[in-house]
Amino acid sequence: MNTRRALLAFITGCMKSLGIFGLMFGSPLWGSELVKTIEQVKPSIVGIGTVQMTRSPPVNFLGTGFVLDDGLHVVTNAHVVPEVLDIANKESYVVITGKGKQPELRVATIVAIDKDHDLALLKISGLALPTMKLGDAEKVREGQDLIFTGFPIGMVLGFYPVTHRAMVSSITPIILPAHNSRQLNAKMIGQLQKSAYAVFQLDGTAYPGSSGSPLYDPETGLVYGVINMVFVKGKKEAALSNPSGITYAIPGNYIRELLQQRK
To answer: Cα–Cα distances in Å, from 202 out to 70, 171, 228?
Structure first.
């Protein structure tokens, strides 16, 4: 009996030293903390679109956004919100809240735009919504596990936010140096003149409807970036004949500057 106990103690010690014991008998990776974080974050995830009652369907879903600050301000990508509305037919911006097949529409106005970083800030009316908090994007490191929540396929199957895991594969300039001048286009030259900034390259899969989704910490829920499926890919992958499925995110520190610009 003593020999058996000694052998069991020896095996357990070896497993602990190798980290195997925790994997088999401890808390699983992406465990209960992730579940709590997602439950806390989901009420802050909203859809972005326009509404025009004379068209069918009246709501045009454009992308994802998330609530910050006082509960009445929503961040998304600038490319998600159209610059021109059909005012003659009373088209307006809307923020889509709730879940299921009967979401709530909140009329919204654009209060700040940052085209250089493809960010937009909208303000909604009505009662304040639950908010997310900003983290320090400069502390994000390659290899760090993050998650993002949004509406990858819009409202096709109902209005239900979806969460994806993503590791930060690289922190890389938004524009890669061109091998020769023929690869430079007007947009790239303009961006280089303004000095290229770093973006997060992720190994998670996102879709057009995911644009504007918050990239956040799975334990704290702090926002570190904004998923971008159009603006960044158009710059980094301009030289590729077949653009990749890589996902990118704009660092969240630019959101602080956006909040200061609000009208």
So the answer is: 30, 9, 11
**pLDDT tens, position by position, 170-220:** 998 886 444 334 445 565 555 555 557 899 999 988 888 999 999 999 999
pLDDT digits (tens, 9 = 90+) for 38-96: 999 999 999 999 999 989 899 999 999 999 999 999 999 999 999 889 998 999 999 99
Residue ranges of domains in the chain: 2-30, 137-261
Q: What CATH superfamily is the domain 137-261?
A: Trypsin-like serine proteases (2.40.10.10)
What is the reported pTM?
Answer: 0.80
Q: What is the identity of the amino acid at 12?
A: T
Residue type at 108 in one-letter notation: A
The label of the residue with tokens 């610009």 reads: 261
- For 123-176, the three-class secondary structure string (H helix, E strand, C coil) is EECCCCCCCCCECCHHHCCCCCEEEEEECCCCCECEECCEEEEEEEEEEEECCC
Question: CA separation (Å) from 47 to 76, 98, 195, 258?
Answer: 9, 9, 32, 19
Q: Which of 101, 93, 74, 212 is nearest to 160 (CA)?
A: 101
Q: Enumerate residues 6+ apart whose C-beta is below 8 A from 233.
A: 243, 246, 248
